[in-house]
Amino acid sequence: MKITVDEAKCCGAGQCVMVAPDVFDQRDEDGVVVLLDAEPPTELHPAAQEAASVCPAAAIVVDETG
């Protein structure tokens, strides 16, 4: 799994951090997503996929082939 984020799309809702705090964080100054682990371990894949699905700005892309 490979994760990418589009910071320009991020609206700072923080859903990703609530769902997958080991994979995502937010910048203090503006709330924009910070990707902590672009290739998380297998046990974090479900949370990363859920974070991408609940992102209101569709700023998170999960590539299962990567």
The description of the largest β-sheet is: 2 strands, antiparallel
**Per DSSP, what share of the residues sits in E-state strands of 2 or more residues?**
15-25%
What's the mean pLDDT score? Answer: 96
Spatial ordering of strands, largest sheet: 1-4
CATH class: Alpha Beta
Number of strands: 4
Structural class: alpha+beta
The residue ranges in which pLDDT falls below 50 over 5 or more consecutive positions are none
Number of domains: 1
| CATH third-tier fold name | Alpha-Beta Plaits
- The CATH architecture: 2-Layer Sandwich
SSE sequence, one letter per element: EHEEHE
Helix content: 10-25%
Continuous helix count: 2
What is the terminal-to-terminal distance? 5 Å
Q: What shape does the CA trace take?
A: globular
- Radius of gyration equals 10 Å
Characterization of this structure:
The structure is a single chain. By secondary structure, the chain is of the alpha+beta class. The protein has a single domain (2-60), classed as Alpha-Beta Plaits, CATH 3.30.70.20. The protein is built from two helices and four strands, in the order E-H-E-E-H-E. A two-stranded antiparallel ribbon has the order 1-4.
